[in-house]
Amino acid sequence: MTALSININKIALIRNSRPGNYPDVAAYAEKCINLGADGITVHPRPDQRHIRPNDVRDISKIISELDGVEFNVEGNPFADQNGDYPGLLKLVKQTRPDQCTLVPDGLDQLTSDHGFDLDAFGKTLKPVIEEIKSFGTRVSLFLDPDPSQIKNAARLGADRIELYTGPYASAWGSEELKNIHRQHANAAKLANSLGLGVNAGHDLNLENLANYATIEHLLEVSIGHAFTVDSLYLGLKQSMEAYLSILSKTQDC
After folding, report:
1. Domain limits of the chain?
2. Which of 39, 88, 164, 192 has its CA 20 to 30 A from that of 73?
3. What is the pTM of this model?
4. Is 202 a catalytic residue?
5. Segments of the chain scoring below 70 in pLDDT
6. pLDDT of amino acid 112
7. Is there a catalytic annotation at residue 216?
């Protein structure tokens, strides 16, 4: 079954709106794991608007003691150290997550909204990929479903790609959806043929996930914003059951 990794950035955002540690981000991550999540995703940024370095360290300690649960740390490897934020590479070296997803987000971006241009950044990324892999951490590159970029990712030595699903989600209910879904399916097929694992994420939700998850070779989806909102309406346990049920049914088809 395609693994479900819960992105808990929005829980940290709520926590940061008040002094103190409420809600406790690490405890929330542990609760998600206990309810069946296959992994936890965090995306620390230099401005520490949500996930903070200590959150990454605390969650790493929890997951390191568990079998079959993966920790995925996302971020821009080129973002400079800023205050308590040590930079992505130092944080990954300290915590040794199962996976590090490299994302080309800028400091002024509200959220990730495009994949890497490996024609422009490939030479700079290659030693970064090699360094992260030396920590025993799998490397995934956040990409658009562009065949040339996927081929570049394989040449650079990445282990996986994460397909950016924002345009897919935006096209939901439109005539363009089938074409975008086909692009992602072809991208996943190409990646698999090149020895790359396939992840996906951004704006996947209870409405659009089942259709997307029919794509072959999909190893993991990362879901955060929608999962957090659904938990407000349905409750945490019911939301987890709903997402896991979708992935289970799709696997059985």
Report:
1. 3-140+204-252
2. 192
3. 0.95
4. yes
5. 106-113, 251-253
6. 55
7. no
